[in-house]
Design a protein that fits this description.
Largest sheet: 4 strands, antiparallel
Number of helices: 0
InterPro entries: Disintegrin_dom (IPR001762), Disintegrin_dom_sf (IPR036436), Gal_Oxase/kelch_b-propeller (IPR011043), Gal_Oxidase_central_sf (IPR037293), Kelch-typ_b-propeller (IPR015915), Kelch_1 (IPR006652), Kelch_domain_containing_8 (IPR051746), TSP1_rpt (IPR000884)
Radius of gyration: 65 Å
Mean pLDDT: 85
Oligomer: single chain
Low-confidence stretches: 1-40
Protein name: Branched-chain amino acid ABC transporter substrate-binding protein
Distance between the termini: 20 Å
Structural class: mainly beta
Helix content: under 10%
Number of strands: 86
Shape: elongated
Pfam families: Kelch_1 (PF01344), Kelch_KLHDC2_KLHL20_DRC7 (PF24681)
Keywords: Kelch repeat, Repeat
Strand content: 35-45%
């Protein structure tokens, strides 16, 4: 079997972004913006490109439009580019690339620009890159590969870092070369070489950020695969395919696995598919296609399925197949209107369609087709975006939309610090903020804060007053951790001796005591009773005896009558105790009985102030008072009392206190003490302290609420409390109240959410553009820190908008400079001159220039002069024969005439001759001459081992003549049997470029679409 290779890069998949076969997995469902009717799967036509193309590249722009660049058709390599508008189903030519190219790649960068890399044109393989800016419809250079090696059949992969990895490719064979483009820096750096040279391979970005390179061809079809790790900048071999292949596709599935489909190898077209698992680095079967194919496209749909379209299997294919990853099965999904391969396929996510464009059928194609699929197949809309949306939604274009629940519907906003949550009718759940004003106890601050549905309250300070509501405690205070407690009431004062000594505290804080048992000894306090005992109810009583007179002034026994003992009186003056005598009433007292009268102890002798009754000395006579006994009281605070001498019955003479003796203490903090003057008995008039003298400790009130911040944005403020000081004024201690302040924390005021105005009319980018922008006001509210008011600040936000593509004039004509004067011939003196005129009309969204010209009459003054004749050198003398001594020689003569048609001086040449002579010559004959070699006598078409001959003629002088003689020369035949020359039947064939014998005798290329290059059939 002869080797076959595709002449140009056919697969968008392995080119990275030629087609949508490596589209990212579908994202999560979002709310639908509009509803559309259900669309069933199938193919439909759409507008054709302005020109046919194959080996082109296509990529979806950020706007949703599709950019198609370069390629090849019957006119040659293409630099042109076109944009497809999915909404209108139309194509528009855009600015061409600076350089024509085919078999290149196109990669959309994070900036929205498109990087076009490599390929080939008439100059050979390209190492250059360009960038397309959709916003300005311009191209700019992106430099060249750091390796300097131009390549086609390469891959370009956008990395998560924003860099682009360009790997492998073809330049005189498969290459290992890798280059990396940094879009931010706009520069190229060399990358690490692939482990294996490869072209017509695939490169797929894995979810991990690594890049999987699979298959391709080098010296033979490849089954190997390798993985690029950006963090280490290294390639690592991974598991190999079961079947080698190139010209295949590789698609990243939603599961993170990679589906490789179809292709070609040395045995022919491949019809199998394989799955790569990045977590294990292994491959597994993924079913068999109904039709094997190469140069096809594979596109990941938003349903997770993969659409495989067209391709080549002997001829272009129109069939398409759908892969279902959940079952690993394939099914047919209808045929293209036009069979094709080497085309581009791009997923139109918004429309749930796949655009297939260009490629090769029987020739380069300009046609395009759309595959529409049901993105809602298998989609169940049962995951509303919130509790305020209906549980069941509707699907449109693969997107679920949900109706909001009615306003007032009970919901849960997920915020624990709100209550009474309800829907607002627009899908939003909100509730009333919980208030934290029910502290769990009096030792907590009265207002708390809510966190995750629970109110938290700060403890009051340790020692703050409280009431534990227990009457049996006193002096209650907070303990600093929310508790309130006091000192327990002690019950240790029973109401009598017939109650237990320790009682219990009861209601109202009153102590109660249990009575002691009946019969418990007690003392009823009555001397007339004996054997006193408790009665069991708290009372104490004894038995009356009447043997114990109440005092020493009564005799015993007494008489008992009516429950009372009566005892007889003793004689007045009877000593009834130490220093005691009885009086006439029978009372025993500390006193004296003098002169028939009773005087209580301490009584003064009426006849002498310094004598008294002192029973300890005598109970029957007067005794001198001690020398310390006052006998005359002070007559005032400045008088002094007089004292007895201890040996005289009379009081000493009256006297006053010494001057300076204090006579009146200060009556308060604002009074002063007075002193005696040494003359009078009374104290001087009362005086008070000087005004302003401090007369008490400063007192403080409780701290007030926090306020007084610098402004309403302040997070700190001040709080104050009263402070009372005391000073004297006219003898009165007056209170003066002021305030004291300290720093405290404030909660700043917040403002309302933004509000939005209506969208303005559309302002288009230019007179021809169908795109523009509209604006609306956005009012945001910010707090005025000075006033506490929320001030509105209005800005403008912008959004894109479109209109029907405009037509008509879009600018005034512009003119170039007048050209040279054109005349009918170079001898004319008048003619016409032209200048360019450019008019501008709208078309395809751009202002298109239409070139024309403008003319006017002009005059010229031609120069028709020509130079004079010129002469050549004389030729050598020519003689009639070898023996003649007279001959001729010649020279050219050139004269010039002006040609009015050409404007040139036309030269006319003639020959001038003259006679010349020479001496008689000596004949010298020429060297031998050789005939052509005869055919080789061997039967081998490449001449192996044969003999061939030729004639050899030699010349010798004979007089003035040279005489010829002929002989025959033979030699072995030269051989062409070294490769690429091979004897094929009766022909010696160069098998490196022979269509019928490509790489070996009889190995004919499949059809006219192929040429033999380097012994391999390639598509042309």
């Amino acid at each position: 079997m002869h080797a076959v290779r595709v002449r140009s890069a056919l697969l968008g998949c392995w080119m990275g972004l030629w087609v949508g076969c490596s589209s990212p997995p579908p994202g999560t469902q979002t709310l639908a913006r509009h509803a559309e009717p259900l669309v069933m799967d199938g193919w439909e036509g759409t507008a054709s490109m302005p020109e046919s193309r194959k080996y082109h590249a296509g990529v979806e722009l950020a706007s949703g439009r599709v950019l198609v660049t370069g390629g090849y058709n019957a006119s040659g390599y293409l630099s042109s580019a076109s944009v497809y508008e999915p909404g209108a189903g139309t194509w528009t030519a855009v600015a061409p690339m600076p350089v024509a190219r085919q078999a290149h790649t196109a990669t959309r960068l994070p900036s929205g620009q498109v990087l076009v890399v490599g390929g080939e044109n008439t100059t050979g393989r390209l190492a250059t890159a360009v960038v397309y800016e959709p916003a300005t419809n311009t191209w700019s250079s992106a430099g060249g590969f750091a390796s300097g090696l131009g390549r086609k059949e390469l891959t370009a992969t956008l990395l998560p870092s924003g860099k682009v990895l360009v790997a492998g490719g073809n330049n005189g064979g498969a290459r290992t070369t890798v280059d990396v483009y940094d879009a931010q820096a706009g520069s190229w750096t060399p990358g690490p070489n692939l482990g294996t040279p490869r072209r017509a391979h695939t490169a797929t970005l894995l979810p991990s950020g690594r890049v999987l390179v699979v298959g391709g061809t080098g010296s033979t079809s490849l089954a190997t695969a390798e993985v690029y790790e950006p963090t280490s900048n290294k390639w690592t071999a991974t598991g190999a395919l079961t079947t080698p292949r190139y010209n295949h596709t590789a698609t990243l599935l939603a599961s993170g696995q990679v589906l490789v489909v179809g292709g070609r190898n040395s045995t022919g077209v491949v019809g199998t598919a394989e799955l790569y698992d990045p977590s294990t680095g292994t491959w597994s079967p993924a079913g068999t296609l109904a039709t094997g194919r190469e140069s096809h496209t594979a596109t990941l749909l938003s349903t997770g399925q993969v659409l495989v379209v067209g391709g080549l299997n002997g001829s272009a294919l129109s069939s398409s197949e759908l892969y279902e990853p959940t079952t690993r099965t394939w099914s047919g999904v209808g045929a293209l209107a036009t069979a094709r391969y080497a085309h581009v396929a791009v997923l139109l996510e918004a429309q749930k369609k796949v655009l297939v464009v260009g490629g090769i059928g029987t020739a380069s194609l300009a046609t395009a087709e759309l595959y529409t699929y049901d993105a809602c197949a298998g989609v169940t809309c049962n995951t509303p975006p919130g509790g305020c949306y209906q549980a069941a939604g509707t699907c449109s274009l693969g997107v679920c939309s949900y109706a909001p629940k009615a306003a007032g519907t009970v919901c849960d906003d997920g915020e624990g610090c709100t209550g009474d949550d309800t829907c607002n009718g627009a899908g939003v759940c909100a509730g009333r903020a919980l208030s934290c004003d029910s502290a769990p106890g009096q030792c907590y601050e009265p207002v708390g804060t809510c966190t995750q549905g629970s109110c938290a309250y700060q403890y009051k300070a340790d020692g703050a007053a409280c009431d534990d509501h227990d009457a049996c405690t006193v002096n209650e205070v907070c303990n600093g951790v929310g508790g309130c407690g006091g000192t327990p009431v002690t019950c240790t004062t029973p109401p009598g001796q017939c109650y237990e000594s320790t009682g219990t505290c009861g209601a109202g804080g009153a102590c109660s005591y249990a009575p002691r048992a009946a019969g418990t000894a007690c003392n009823d306090g009555n001397a007339n009773t004996v054997q006193d005992v408790c009665n069991g109810t708290g009372g104490c009583a004894g038995v009356v005896a009447c043997t114990t007179p109440p005092d020493a002034c009564h005799g015993s026994p007494g008489t008992y009558a009516n429950g009372v003992c009566t005892y007889p009186l003793k004689a007045a003056g009877t000593v009834c105790g130490a220093g005691q005598v009885c009086d006439a009433t029978g009372t025993c007292g500390s006193g004296c009985w003098i002169g028939g009268a009773y005087y209580a102890a301490g009584s003064t002798n009426p006849s002498g102030d310094c004598q008294q009754c002192n029973p300890s000395v005598s109970t029957s006579s007067w005794s001198f008072k001690p020398a310390t006994t006052q006998c005359r009281a002070a007559g005032g605070v400045c008088d002094v009392a007089e004292y007895c001498t201890g040996n005289s019955a009379s009081c000493p003479a009256d006297a006053v206190v010494n001057a300076g003796t204090s006579c009146r203490a200060a009556a308060g903090n604002c009074d002063v003490a007075e002193v005696c003057d040494g003359a009078g008995k009374t104290c001087p008039s009362d005086a008070h302290a000087a005004n302003g003298t401090s007369c008490g400790s400063t007192g403080y009130g409780g701290w007030g609420s926090c306020g007084g911040g610098a402004n309403y944005c302040a997070t700190s403020g001040t709080q104050s409390r009263s402070m009372t000081t005391y000073t004297c004024n006219s003898g009165t201690c007056n209170a003066s109240t002021s305030s004291q302040s300290q720093t405290c924390s404030l909660t700043p005021t917040t403002c309302a959410a933004p509000t939005y105005g209506s969208w303005s009319g559309c302002s288009y980018y230019d007179v021809c553009s169908n795109e523009g922008e509209r604006s609306r006001t956005v009012t945001r509210y910010s707090l005025n820190c000075a006033t506490g008011q929320c001030a509105a600040s209005t800005t403008t936000e912008y959004d894109g908008c479109t209109r029907t593509m405009p037509t008509g004039s879009c600018g005034s004509p512009s003119y170039g400079g007048w050209g040279t004067c054109n005349v009918s011939n170079y001898c004319s003196t008048s003619g016409t001159q032209y200048r360019s005129m450019t008019t501008y009309t709208c078309g395809g969204g751009t202002c298109n220039a239409s070139a024309g010209s403008q003319s006017q009459s002009c005059s010229v003054y031609p120069d028709t002069s020509c130079p004079g004749a010129s002469y050549g050198a004389w030729s050598a003398c020519s003689f009639g024969d070898a023996c003649t001594t007279t001959g001729t020689q010649s020279r050219s003569v050139t004269s010039y005439d002006f040609n009015c048609s050409s404007g040139q001086c036309n030269a006319s040449t003639s020959t001038q001759t003259q006679t010349c002579t020479r001496a008689p010559p000596t004949v010298e004959c020429s060297g031998p001459s050789y005939g052509a070699w005869s055919a080789c006598t061997s039967t081998d078409a490449c001449g192996q081992g044969g003999v061939q001959s030729r004639t050899v003629t030699t010349y010798s002088a004979s007089g003035c003549q040279c005489v010829a003689s002929t002989t025959t020369e033979t030699q072995a035949c030269p051989t062409n049997s070294t490769y690429p020359w091979m004897a094929c039947g009766n022909m010696c064939v160069n098998v490196s470029d022979n269509f019928n014998h490509c790489g070996g005798c009889g190995q004919k290329c499949p059809n006219y679409k192929f040429v033999c290059v380097e012994g391999i059939c390639e598509f042309q």
